[in-house]
Automatic annotation (TrEMBL):
This is Non-specific lipid-transfer protein. Keywords: Lipid-binding, Signal, Transport. It comes from the Eukaryota. One of its GO terms (biological process) is lipid transport. It comes from Zingiber officinale (Ginger). GO terms for molecular function: lipid binding. InterPro entries: Bifun_inhib/LTP/seed_sf, Bifunc_inhib/LTP/seed_store, Plant_nsLTP. Plant non-specific lipid-transfer proteins transfer phospholipids as well as galactolipids across membranes. May play a role in wax or cutin deposition in the cell walls of expanding epidermal cells and certain secretory tissues. Residues 1-25 form the signal peptide.
Length: 122
């Protein structure tokens, strides 16, 4: 990722964290955690690699374990949605298929169009 691309991701994460601070006050999962856990998935969801990297699934499982409350899941969903919208070359099918491919069941769809305030519960 280029230096300007990395800066854009950091700024986007900061903006999402600021937005979530008010609406997800009781959430424990942070956008920083979401970004860190899912960063290994970027080459896969952009089609740069064909095989799902094991660190990606480790991150998906870690995030699922950390997000145990509705507030946590909504915060994670919002972060994923926001960050995914800024990923150049994102393949939506690969993004939505990540949980299942990693053997994780989520009670909400992973998509840039998910309404995290309504679709996400525990």
């Amino acid at each position: 990722m280029s230096r300007s691309g990395a800066l854009a991701v950091v700024l986007m994460i900061a903006a999402v964290v600021a937005l979530l601070a008010g609406s997800q006050a009781d959430a424990v999962v942070t956008c920083g955690q979401v970004a860190s856990n899912l960063r290994p998935c970027i080459p896969y969801v952009t089609g740069k690699v064909s095989a799902l990297p094991p660190p990606c699934c480790n991150g998906v499982r870690s995030l699922n374990t950390a997000a145990q409350t509705t507030a946590d899941r909504r915060a994670a969903c919002s972060c994923i949605r926001s960050q995914a919208s800024g990923i150049s070359g994102l393949q939506p099918g690969r993004l939505s298929g990540l949980p299942g491919s990693c053997g994780v069941h989520l009670p909400f769809p992973v998509s840039t169009s998910t309404d995290c305030s309504r679709s996400v519960t525990i």
